[in-house]
Amino acid sequence: MALLQISEPGLSAAPHERKLAIGIDLGTTHSLVASVRSGVAETLVDENGQHLLPSVVHYTTQGHRVGYEAYQDASKDAANTIVSVKRFLGRSVADIRHNWPSLPYEFVNEDAKSVSFNTAQGIKNPVQVSADILTELRGRAEASLGDEVTNAVITVPAYFDDAQRQGTKDAAALAGLNVMRLLNEPTAAALAYGLDSGQEGVIAVYDLGGGTFDISILRLNKGVFEVLSTGGDSALGGDDFDHALANAIADNVGFDATQRKQYYRHLVSAAKTVKEQLSDSPTARLDLAFGNMGEIEIAREQLNLLIEPFIKQTLRACRRALKDAEIGKDDVVEVVLVGGSTRVPFVRDQVESFFGRAPLSSIDPDKVVAVGAAIQADVLVGNKPDNEMLLLDVLPLSLGIETMGGLAEKIVARNTTIPVAKAQEFTTFKDGQTAMMIHVVQGERELVEDCRSLARFELTGIPPMAAGAAHIRVTFQVDADGLLSVSAMEKSSGVQADIQVKPSYGLEENEIADMLKASMSHAKGDMQARMLKEQQVEAARVLEALQSALAVDKALLDDRELAVLENTMADLDAAAKADSTDDIKAAIDAVDKASQVFAERRMDKSINLALAGQSVEQL
Amino acid sequence: MGIKVSDAAATRAKTFLQNRGSGLGIRLGVKTTGCSGLAYVLEFVDDLNEDDEVFEDNGVKIIIDGKSLVYLDGTELDFAKEGLNEGFQFNNPNANGECGCGESFNV
């Protein structure tokens, strides 16, 4: 008979309509799946009672294996064992080669903008590898929940860009999962502690894993978590503690270079064990059987000294993140610890003294993100009576389009809460213009060349009209997962074009930070550049209009008048090519003045035409 | 007759209630849906209704409405594990047929 869970009052599901949903923490080194059962959010275990699933997939000619088994294969068959695939989502081969020069994988097309590995199971891309991990977790969830599971909330780092988020969604679709929402990892951790119903204010999420460190500053305002800033180091984590301790042990027992090299792997795993023991007791004993060096004792203080430089480094990143968010330490109302390395007591102490308050650490820091995702999934699938938690996130960078002169016109401002839809009207620049190129850009700078290009598409079939007469409505829509679609429509004819933005490859978190910083440090120069470009565009527009008028009505001017006008036009043309905003402005004024007579005569002529042949009574 | 709660079910039910932080007890009930006619209801209880009866066994308060009690009298609430799956089940002497999945039954 079916096994039942306790529901909230009045929310018992009809048979075969149980509302199941899972939360997945798709991590770089480990992944977890959690679900809410009888009101309790907990991570689900595999047959061996393990909560963590190593994010490793081993492809053989027979099939593939995921998790611990695959992890053990990594050293034997490195080329077919994809480890930490999350790093590769939404990246180009060049990017990956640059960041990790010594990977054992065979890439299919070195020039491609997205990555594919050549494995014993054929060609696999990061989305497929991620899907294999998700399928494994889904299977575990179905075995644990006793039913089919399709609805999921999956967490992603706060700094993931559109391409990386889309990659995660694609992987979920391949794994047969319906992503109800992608949730930022720090937001999930805050949710696990129920901070969404707590005090409003700034929350710092300190996430120190095995190989990565992330600090996120969130602001909770009316139930909405806003990411104020992110920072960190993608190559700093508990593994560094292990290596430092391993080297110290080798020094301590007097290993020479050869022994150190020979026993290094043993040293590192021994160091890891010692580190874990020191989290619970002040000293740890280590039997160095492999080097015949007998037993040594290591005190917590020794470990603390060794890891202090790394922790200082994380705190520097915290300071920077606070500064980026323009808030002080005193504004932080809660600190949340995430990641296995925050179990080290010294890390907790240092974080506590940095922020001046005890961090939240009662939930297992390895599981806290998955738990938060499960809580969110449970709400989204409709298992809570008061569906008040409508979690929103914000855009990390502004989105807009390129306008004449290479200017970036922002349509959706940075830090806007998503989902959002915004529209703005644009018009044509030339008479009879029938097509318009829409160039979608991301960033804070005024000039397109300083922003990041996301996509281009063309709106064609605009009916020929005078310059400025067409109304083209450009709509930006960002869904709850941070994915962007842009559409453009010419209003009189209804012709339309749109695009889904899946950028070719991603931005790193520090690149986002750099882009933000650049926009501040270049603010003045950018404004001047913008004004110059605007004047240049205006100059081109004036010249364009005059030239087309002259082509029709040159006869209205005598030779002398024409020469004067053409002279001022030549001056304006020259000024527009130089870079003085004021000169261009002056030249435009001069042309305006010189063309006044011409404009008046054209006006007379068109009125005459309109009136010709009509009697006074008719008017 | 009445309602029994097994040790395993009592331990779990207490934990879940404690975790939830509020609630008078657990409601058992039946409703008329499902492929075999009737389906079980298992919910937390915040408010008592007029026709509710309250039982207590093994330290757990069980709330059943009068109509459901007809179908549930003598039932033992148990907690079981089947592989990785775990949850509550109704050992109901009144049920004499279940659908293949066991989510609904008839009497």
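qc> Chain B has a mean pLDDT of 84.
qc> done
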